[in-house]
Amino acid sequence: MSPSAGSVETWLIAIKKLQHAANETRDRWICNQPGERVPLKDAVGRIALTDCISPECTPQFDTSAMDGFAVSSLATKDASLTHPVQFRVIGTITPGSGCLDDSGIAAYGMEPCAEIMTGGRFPDRAGPLGQLDACVRVEDITIAIYGNSNSMEQWRSIIVTKPVQPNAHRRIAGNDIQCSEVLVKAGQRISSSHIMPLSSLGFQDTEVMRKLRVGIWSTGNEFVTKSASIADVNGPFLQAASTEYGAEADFLGYLSDDVQSLSQSFHSHALSDKWDVLITSGAVSIGKFDFIRAALDGCGAKVIFHGLNIRPGHPVLFALINLGNSSLFPIFDN
């Protein structure tokens, strides 16, 4: 009943056994997963119930990666300090703005360009302004203003003195997220880094698994009878730690040092379907009042390991309670 020196597991072997046990109990847990839909702000730390799939690509069209001017890169291929290229500004492109007015371009006598803000949409390549294929930064050009400030004839031009690379500072449609791309896989923990791409695609909420339900006991007659002024520190800690890792943790109270009482409590709570995991604290070593192992044996539990080669935590125990129909219920004792 007690862990012998030869049965003490290493940490790595214990982890492998826990992973194997998780695979054994996964189907039962998933079957009891109705799931729930929560706002994105509440989804961080939760487990995705289904894949979150992008309904479209982002950006949906080519946009500018910075403030500057949309120009024809081809027109700047020979630009230099001695041979500058001048462009006439025909309008301003902001995020969400409509198409530019391209009428009268032929009469300007110089290459057209458009002031473009970060996130502004480049003219379609097949359109009349499709030659505006790149963005030149404000700090790389000189702006000239012509005409009287009180006159409607005032207009601006920019002067470029070095070549601009094709597609410079241009975010290509679909470059961030592809249509039908899986943003979060089912079973994956949602992190804050997922919120931005989900929000960019219009997700307001997402479907997640319900939280793991953990039931926690502290053991010892001293807590049951309150005959000694001893504070229970493990119970509050285990409840807080379980909550910190995303579980719904219930403190179930105190268990007395009695094999039959312990065994009945373990079995009845495992059958109740109110919790997914049970955790106890205390009575798991090999002392006179350490009855956890005997109680688990009494309710037909399968002990996966009892004793780890670590300090502190050497007596820790993990077992699976057989609920029938090949269903196993996990219980930790430390």
From TrEMBL:
Main function: Catalyzes two steps in the biosynthesis of the molybdenum cofactor. In the first step, molybdopterin is adenylated. Subsequently, molybdate is inserted into adenylated molybdopterin and AMP is released.
Keyword Metal-binding appears in the UniProt entry: yes
GO biological process: Mo-molybdopterin cofactor biosynthetic process
Annotated pathway: Cofactor biosynthesis; molybdopterin biosynthesis
Matching SUPFAM superfamilies: MoeA N-terminal region -like, Molybdenum cofactor biosynthesis proteins
Positions of the MoaB/Mog domain: 215-334
Protein known as: molybdopterin adenylyltransferase
Cellular component, GO annotation: cytosol
Stretch forming the signal peptide: none
Enzyme Commission number(s) from the entry: 2.7.7.75
Molecular function via GO: ATP binding; metal ion binding; molybdopterin adenylyltransferase activity; molybdopterin molybdotransferase activity
Cofactor: Mg(2+)
Family: Belongs to the MoeA family. In the C-terminal section; belongs to the MoeA family.
Catalytic activity: adenylyl-molybdopterin + molybdate = Mo-molybdopterin + AMP + H(+); molybdopterin + ATP + H(+) = adenylyl-molybdopterin + diphosphate
